[in-house]
């Protein structure tokens, strides 16, 4: 009797996963990634809006803001550690257990930030503790994405991996929407209230969100691909060693694909636009709440574009969808600052909305693209580490670089060219990869999965 196609919505015994199981997986990945990225983004927003004054004021006004943005980037340096740990344990013990622990770690770190005394209260210990908690967030974020992606894509029917894979991806713009909306609400009483107490509320609300996310994820079954690997006792003993022994170049190229998206996305998710547009000494000098509402609105367009891109990638392929996305993203990059610099909230929103359409098209297909690049036995390690490296090269210090460029040149033109350059890097990396949409994902097809998807290398 023929073997059913593994990893395409089939369980280890060959029975098709029910639609109810699939809906539960999609819901759990959306909720879990939303909670994780809500936590991650509220830190970035606070770093752009209040942390310079509350934790780094002795460094001086200009340098304090750079230090505040550096703490956003520092967490990215620890994402590879989270990715290595999650990849190792995820390929050995399963996707589900890793997702539970990353959620708990992120929530605990976020809540503690909300309780942290400022520099005025405890001196140098305040920024040190802040950085340590941000490091824990980075470790959690590094492990979260790969597990969420594989739970979604490995449960999906072969012809619908793009749309299923978009479920953890839309958790990012939903997390941005939620974080921006909560920040905007607590900023309504005024900037003084926000700096004194209001900024803490979004961090403390994380406790409730973590409980919801934990409950939802507990009810999800393990990935069918990992369950089949476990049943056959074919799990990799040292998955990270095998990954870098055979697929180092692929990891680098995949990382650059994400870097092109991440550097541009972190203009808002990293808090830079929020800071730039609300700086009372800057050229825009808008009030905090309207800017946060504009970012909230752009999160909606990002969400819609991400979902559409995942759906389209099932019809025209991941590679073609990405190429369209890079073109749209480049157009958005050149429109962004001219619209923001009008100091009109409506035009600021328009600039962000246009940008997020391109961001959605270069993010929606990523889960399916990454999952189809790596063999089943090392897939968690491959997608997690590629993602973590891409985050460092792309978004880690994008807000810091933007802040330094503006301070050095007195203009946002330099930032535009930096973002355009990163977009082109992403496009080139995409062009180097073959489209592997629909490739079997299960352990029966490891030999086919191990063939290089990079143009110019042996594909035989």
- Taking all Cα atoms into account, the compactness measure Rg is 21 Å
Please provide the ordered H/E string of secondary-structure elements.
HHHHHHHHHHHHHHHHHHHHH
Amino- and carboxy-terminal Cα gap: 28 Å
- Spans where pLDDT lies below 50 across 5 or more residues: 1-16
Per CATH, the class reads: Mainly Alpha
User: DSSP helix count?
Assistant: 21
- Which outline best applies? globular
CATH homolog superfamily: MFS general substrate transporter like domains
Q: Can you tell me the CATH architecture?
A: Up-down Bundle
Organism: Microbacterium gallinarum
Transmembrane segments: 40-57, 63-86, 98-122, 163-185, 197-216, 248-267, 287-309, 321-340, 346-364, 385-409, 415-433
Protein name: MHS family MFS transporter
Domain Major facilitator superfamily (MFS) profile: 25-438
Explain how this protein is built.
The protein is mostly helical and 460 residues long. 75% of the residues lie in helices and 0% in strands. The protein has helices spanning 19-55, 61-77, 79-93, 95-114, 119-122, 125-153, 161-187, 191-198, 200-204, 206-218, 224-232, 239-265, 272-278, 288-316, 318-340, 345-361, 366-371, 379-393, 398-409, 413-431, 446-449. Helix 1 packs antiparallel against helix 2 (61-77) and helix 1 packs antiparallel against helix 6 (125-153). The longest helix is centred in the first third of the chain and has 37 residues, at 19-55. The radius of gyration is 21 Å and the shape is globular. The relative contact order is 0.16. Residues 1-16 have low confidence and may be disordered.
């Amino acid at each position: 009797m023929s073997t059913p196609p593994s990893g395409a919505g089939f369980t280890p015994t060959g029975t098709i996963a029910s639609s109810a199981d699939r809906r539960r997986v999609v819901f759990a990945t959306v909720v879990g990634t939303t909670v994780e990225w809500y936590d991650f983004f509220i830190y970035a927003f606070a770093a752009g809006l209040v942390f310079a004054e509350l934790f780094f004021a002795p460094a001086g006004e200009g340098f304090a803001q750079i230090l505040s943005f550096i703490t956003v980037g520092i967490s990215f340096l620890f994402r590879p550690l989270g990715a290595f740990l999650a990849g190792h344990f995820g390929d050995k013990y399963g996707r589900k257990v890793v997702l539970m622990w990353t959620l708990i770690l992120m929530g605990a770190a976020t809540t503690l930030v909300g309780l942290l005394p400022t520099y005025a209260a405890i001196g140098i210990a305040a920024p040190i503790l802040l950085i340590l908690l941000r490091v824990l967030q980075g470790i959690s974020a590094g492990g979260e994405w790969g597990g969420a992606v594989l739970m979604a894509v490995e449960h999906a029917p072969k012809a619908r991996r793009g749309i299923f894979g978009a479920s953890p991806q839309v958790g990012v713009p939903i997390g941005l929407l939620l974080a921006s909306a909560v920040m905007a609400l607590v900023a309504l009483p005024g900037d003084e209230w926000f700096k004194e107490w209001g900024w803490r509320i979004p961090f403390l609300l994380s406790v409730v969100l973590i409980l919801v996310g934990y409950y939802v994820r507990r009810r999800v079954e393990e990935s069918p691909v990992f369950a089949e690997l476990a049943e056959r006792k074919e799990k990799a003993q040292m998955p990270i060693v095998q990954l870098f022994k055979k697929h180092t170049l692929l990891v680098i190229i995949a990382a650059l694909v994400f870097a092109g998206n991440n550097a541009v996305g972190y203009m808002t998710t990293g808090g830079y636009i929020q800071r730039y547009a609300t700086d009372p000494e800057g050229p825009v000098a808008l009030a905090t709440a309207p800017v946060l509402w504009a970012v909230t609105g752009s999160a909606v367009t990002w969400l819609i574009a991400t979902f559409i891109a995942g759906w389209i990638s099932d019809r025209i392929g991941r590679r073609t969808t990405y190429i369209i996305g890079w073109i749209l993203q480049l157009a958005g990059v050149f429109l962004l600052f001219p619209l923001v610099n009008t100091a009109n909230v409506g035009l600021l929103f328009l600039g962000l909305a246009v940008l997020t359409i391109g961001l959605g098209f270069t993010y929606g297909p990523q889960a399916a693209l990454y999952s189809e690049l790596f063999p089943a036995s090392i897939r968690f390690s491959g997608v997690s580490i590629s993602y973590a490296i891409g985050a460092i090269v792309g978004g880690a210090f994008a807000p810091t670089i933007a802040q330094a460029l503006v301070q050095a040149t007195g203009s946002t033109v330099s930032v535009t060219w930096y973002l355009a350059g990163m977009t082109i890097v992403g496009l080139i990396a995409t062009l180097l990869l073959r489209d592997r949409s629909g490739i079997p994902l299960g352990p029966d097809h490891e030999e086919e999965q191990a063939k290089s998807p990079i143009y110019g290398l042996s594909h035989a």
